[in-house]
Every structure is written in C-alpha cells, then in structure tokens.
Design brief:
2 copies of one chain form a homodimer.
Chain A lengths: L1 E5 H6 L2 H10 L4 E2 L1 E6 L5 E6 L2 E6 L2 E7 L7 H9 L1 E6 L5 H6 L8 H5 L3 E2 L8 E2 L4 E12 L6 E13 L11 H4 L2 E4 L3 E10 L13
Antiparallel strand pairs in A: 2-12, 3-4, 3-7, 5-6, 6-11, 7-10, 8-9, 10-11, 12-13
InterPro entries (chains A, B): Flavin_Rdtase-like_dom, Split_barrel_FMN-bd
Family (chains A, B): Belongs to the flavoredoxin family.
Keywords (chains A, B): Flavoprotein, FMN, Oxidoreductase
Chain lengths: ~210, ~210
C-alpha cells in the first residue's frame, strides 16, 4: 500500500517527523568527513551527507551547508582559509564519525580520537586511516534563495586513495574501499554490488562490465 | 598503499579515466528516475545521481544538471512546465532505469517498458512500481559559474511511499523499500545496514536506535 503525503500534511507533521522524512527522500547519500583548520590553527572535523559531483574537467565537487545564520565552523574555516578535505568513512570508525557532529568547543579530532594526517604543504587536515582522502580549494559559493542554504564549490587539488580500490579504467570500487553510505540523519550502510552496466544505446542490450 | 593523484596528473589522464575517477569520488550516490512531460505531451524519463536534500521546512530538493549547452529534455521540460517527479529505483528494474539514459527520440517510458503512472492532477508522470514517488514543482534555478552546471531547486508537493518503508518517527527504511544506490557512472548497489545511531552530544555514549 502506498501512503500519500501532500504539502499540507508534510507541513502539519511534527517537526522531527518532517525532518526525518524529508531527509530520507533523496535516497542513499554520500558520507564524508570534512576536515578544516581555522586561521588560528584549531582543527575541525564534521560529517556531511551533502557532497556531490559537479564536473570532471576541471575536477569540481559541491558541498551544501545549512544557512549561515548561526556559527558553522566548517563553512567559516573554508571561507577564511579556502582549504578543506573530504574523507570517506569506513565501518571501522563510523561511530566516531557520527560523534564528530556533537557541539565540541575544541577540535573534534581530539574529542573523538580520529587521527589527523597532513600531506605535502596542504593546509587542512586529512583523516588518518580513511581509504579516500581529497584535498580541495574553495572555488565558488552560491546562496540558495529559497532557504539560505550555502553551496560551496571546491576544486579538487589532490586525491589519496587506497590502491586496492582503483580499477584500471579509473573508476573506484567503493565496496573494496569499505566506504559507508548514510540515509536520513543517522542510519549507516555498506554497499552491496548488484551490477555494473555497459553504456546504454538505443536498440543495444546492456551487458555486465 | 595510498595512490596519489595531484591536479596535474588528473588533468593529464585520459578523459574516460578522469571521468570515471572523478565521478566516483563523492561516495555512494542517490539514484532517482526523473519523470517529465513536454508542453507537447511527450513524456521523458532519465536517471539522475545528483539529487540531494536542501531543506525540510519548507521541503526542498536539489538536482544538478550538466551545462545547458546541448539539448537536455529533462531540464527543458522542467523549465517549460515547472513539474517533475523523482522515483526511487529497485533491483527489479535498475537495468531499465540505466537504459533510459540512451538517446531515444521518443519517450523513454515506451522504449524501456517502464510504466507511467499519474496521480491527482499532477502534470508529470510517475514511475509505476517505484516504492517512493515524489512530485516536485520548480522553485528556483542557479548556474554554477565554474562550469555552467545548472542547479534546479524543487519544492516537494507530494510523496507516495510504500508504507512498509515508513517508520513511526518519519524516517524511511530504504533497505525495506529496496532502493538502489549508484557509484561512478554505471555501478549499482543495495544498502546493507550497519547501524542507526543516537543524536551525538559531547561526553555521552552513542547508542543504537
């Protein structure tokens, strides 16, 4: 049986119910820990499920931030220093990753026991033990008029990836990397591959690749 | 062993390699079939992995479209009619969903055998058999300066969801709905739940909820 919610019933629902429902609608979401460092040198780490591909040439990634009306350390550090890192989360530390969302005064690395890692002269901290670590430079920001959400576009400067997850064709095997995915606000999953399909053309059968 | 790509090695890579690599970076992605209908009445269906949560109050969703420099039926229909649907994909029809990306002259519903479904007086077609069907109205568009990507913001007007996937608290059980997730351009997965965690606060242990 299909259950129907119209706009009125969504808006009349209890606010936590609405938040949980609407956050679940898009489907499985990427999960990345974003690492930043303030101008004063304090590191910050926070989980994001709103990171998405924008383009390959040049390589660009997007991150959505809730409205910049209250203190948002990650966004402020990115605007101040133009540097941030994206780090995939595995089953081995997804609980600590979730815990980084708590309101700490100091560094979430210290509070949760997640290790910092630095590469070359990149300013922002990477997550030690993450199988996929990406260093990004602030490229552009936009504000969504409808609700003040801030879209940050990042230029991908560096990728460090566990080579067991890199296929010959450049695609990444996220099952092999052990990357975790999130649904709604608080539910974590691994991926279980069902198939990889050939490029679709009219009148041609799809094959497994 | 970690493999390193810097910006120069990314840009020097063969273009298909770069496309596959960069498309894989964000992690697991949502998979939705977007249903639209042209002013002339021709239906269109296409798979999107760039659909994401924007806000719950009011309920908003975002969709990213590649630059509007060539014919893009889905985007054009949305701009012309202001209506579109999002439909989750299950293992039962993920191959047809992939096939809708082929360049058909006519309707992808007809070409792939996916059924159209209409509810109330909503203009755009839903996907018959999808366990989660969302009707959206065009709210706003923005163009990302860095590469011309178009962000469409949609207002969520209707949700039809299989009630077996709706929990008491409003969150959706996507494992129960059988929703498929995608990585890179062409690889499909089911989710395998590892845990749902309580709201994180400093100094308090996380518990399974």
């Amino acid at each position: 049986m299909m259950k129907h919610f119209d706009k009125a019933s969504i808006l009349e629902a209890e606010s936590f119910y609405r938040r949980d429902l609407i956050n679940s609608l898009s489907g499985y979401k990427s999960l990345n820990l974003i690492g930043t460092k303030s101008k004063e040198g304090l590191t910050n780490l926070a989980p994001f499920s709103q990171v998405f591909h924008i383009g390959a040439t040049p390589p660009l990634v997007g991150v959505l931030f809730r409205p910049h009306s209250v203190e948002r350390h990650t966004l402020e550090n990115i605007l101040d220093t133009a540097a941030f890192t994206l780090n995939h989360v595995t089953e081995g530390f997804y609980r600590q990753a979730h815990q980084t969302a708590a309101r700490y005064e100091g560094s979430e690395f210290e509070a949760t026991g997640i290790g910092e890692e630095y590469y070359l002269d990149f300013f922002a901290p990477f997550v030690k033990g993450s199988p996929l670590q990406i260093g990004c430079k602030l490229e552009e920001t936009q504000v969504i008029k409808a609700n003040g959400t801030v879209l940050v576009v990042g230029a991908i400067e560096h990728i460090w990836v566990d080579e067991k997850g890199v296929r010959m064709d450049g695609s990444l095997d996220l099952n092999a990397l052990g990357t975790v995915t999130v649904t709604g606000l608080d539910e974590y999953h691994l991926g279980q591959k069902i198939g990889r399909l050939s490029y679709p053309k009219p009148g041609r059968d799809l094959v497994e690749i």
